[in-house]
């Protein structure tokens, strides 16, 4: 092979690598808000699935609904005190999350985004973890636990809903400051409430559910709401210095939004199942992930309060 041909091959390979990297970057919301496990594992798999779905003209919502069914089946398989059945459930849950990654990447690559798709994607995990909580509770009762285990499951489930809501809220707030309205999915309850009547049937139910979801986010962050009102009502408030300061202060917090989301929770769930101690899943949710969420809320509230202080305004 001549030197000229080798050089041309190297150029072609470089261009292909750059094109692949650009395509992968376009499928992400932002590297700042992505967890390393997602970047290394779920996003590459999700991109491959998204590209196949794009060729087959499969919509993002279809991918999301498929992920919900698979994730629920995975959760049901954790009922049996049989590690091999549990491992099948683990693999299905990983596949469901890969699909959940793919739906967003497909929507961004094909520019096929919708409000209903955003809502559907947001509640997919609630179906998975609802099935997991029910299966684990029934498993523990079958093993001789008192029906009071349902109290533990409900507290854990409510904790999970709030944790996911706040992690999603802060992530989209960060994306709003980073990319503006087009780069984030940042909603408020008043806008969502106005749109409920535009939908019927299951979509209307989903909108009402999402409305409650946004109200949880807002009621848990009072100083942030004042900060957002200031942004909306005072055009001069959003200065380049404020934007840069917000991103600098909140970039370190993104790791905490990831910790209280899917990967950490599932890694420890798998550990508890291998140890045959599924009750620890509920305890971990309540006693470990809740304090991390409270720390995240406190940091964000403190920043919002400081940003609105008279000292800053002067």
Automatic annotation (TrEMBL):
Keywords: Membrane, Transferase, Transmembrane, Transmembrane helix
Origin: domain of life: Bacteria
TM helices/strands, residue ranges: 58-77, 83-102, 123-142, 148-170, 253-273, 279-297
Gene3D superfamilies the record matches: 1.20.120.1760
Stored InterPro entries: CDP-OH_P_trans (IPR000462), CDP-OH_PTrfase_TM_dom (IPR043130)
GO cellular component, one term: membrane
Any single Pfam family the record assigns to this protein: CDP-OH_P_transf
GO biological process: phospholipid biosynthetic process
Annotated organism of origin: Arachidicoccus rhizosphaerae
GO MF annotations, alphabetized: phosphotransferase activity, for other substituted phosphate groups
Protein name per the record: CDP-alcohol phosphatidyltransferase
């Amino acid at each position: 092979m001549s030197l000229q041909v080798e050089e041309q091959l190297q150029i072609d390979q470089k261009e292909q690598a750059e094109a692949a990297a650009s395509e992968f970057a376009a499928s992400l919301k932002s590297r700042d808000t992505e967890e390393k496990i997602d970047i290394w594992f779920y996003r590459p798999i999700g991109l491959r699935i998204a590209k196949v779905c794009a060729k087959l003209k499969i919509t993002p919502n279809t991918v999301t609904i498929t992920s919900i069914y698979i994730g629920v089946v995975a959760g049901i398989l954790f009922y049996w005190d049989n590690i091999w059945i549990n491992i099948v459930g683990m693999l299905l849950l990983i596949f469901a999350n890969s699909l959940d990654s793919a739906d967003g990447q497909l929507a961004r690559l094909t520019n096929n985004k919708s409000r209903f798709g955003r809502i559907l994607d947001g509640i997919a995990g609630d179906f998975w973890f609802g099935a997991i909580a029910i299966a684990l509770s029934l498993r523990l009762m079958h093993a001789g636990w008192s029906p009071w285990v349902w109290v533990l499951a409900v507290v854990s489930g409510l904790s999970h809903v709030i944790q996911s809501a706040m992690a999603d809220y802060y992530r989209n707030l960060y994306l709003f400051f980073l990319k503006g309205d087009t780069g984030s999915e940042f909603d408020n309850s008043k806008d969502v409430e106005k749109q409920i009547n535009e939908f019927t049937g299951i979509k209307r139910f989903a909108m009402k559910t999402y409305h409650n979801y946004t109200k949880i986010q807002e009621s848990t962050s009072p100083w942030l709401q004042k900060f957002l009102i200031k942004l909306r009502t005072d055009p001069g408030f959003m200065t380049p210095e404020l934007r840069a300061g917000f991103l600098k202060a909140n970039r370190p917090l993104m790791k905490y939004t990831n910790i209280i989301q899917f990967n950490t929770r599932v890694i420890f769930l798998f550990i508890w199942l291998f140890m045959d101690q599924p009750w620890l899943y509920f305890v971990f949710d309540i006693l470990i992930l809740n304090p991390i969420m409270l720390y995240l809320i406190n940091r964000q509230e403190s920043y919002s309060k400081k940003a609105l202080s008279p000292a800053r305004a002067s």
